[in-house]
């Protein structure tokens, strides 16, 4: 597991105050910072392709082990947590929202081989209207660079943390490579690159600072961590409700809370009042070795990939035409009817190609 730096600072090694920003900083019509001078612009980065390490190890279903970690640690950012609480119906349709969100999120990386795809810009634009007022009267906007970059940091660094725990195990040079590739990934949103640390070591300082000084407990965090009201996922819908509610729900809550605690940095455990013993750590490492063997050595890689990344690899390998339509989420994952015109939602009401896991594609 990555060592947590023990270097408390009074200022974030990445973030700047309004007074410190360059006079050349540009802002969008919505009021968020869209460009900062003195940093490499988003347009200077090339999209990631199949030769990248990110393509090699990201985009598999093993990320589901880390689902609660990702959702909770994102919401621990005060402004991001407020935005989710004020604007998202994540808590009302959790499986559907999670399953459909995986398509554009992974598409930012893997749609680079599809001619004309602008998935990064689409994801950015879902957030344009997500803004409001904090309890202390300050304003938030989802595209505030310091907020938006935190969400991205949890995506790319979550990949590192997952590999550290459950494989495929990485060298330090590979972690640095993933960090450098994360810049090109982030550039696909065409937002201000100001918050992006310069080096992997700078990023670790940034992450440690955020965990120790910025992240907070919040009702949206606790709601993510509470899965006692979560129905069975679609592939387990055959389980009787009484069995799910009375037996599986309590066991799932205990298991996934333990998994999530294992992924947390120690400062986060302290904030949330979670205990992690040496015995927990030993069991977690043992579990990680088992998952690494099953997921990364025993099972075919193609079977483990989410439909959008799998389709991208199929294009590269000649199994799918390069100009074939993008693979979209199944209709069962679409937002409720009264939310389908909401610009915050990815909502492909019609699609030439839809995924049905594990290998079947359909069309409308």
UniProtKB/TrEMBL annotation:
Residues 1-35 are annotated as: Disordered. Residues 17-33 have a biased composition (Basic and acidic residues). Transmembrane segments: none annotated. Residues 55-291 form the ER-bound oxygenase mpaB/mpaB'/Rubber oxygenase catalytic domain. It comes from the Bacteria. It holds the Pfam family MPAB_Lcp_cat. InterPro entries: MPAB/Lcp_cat_dom. This is Oxygenase MpaB family protein.
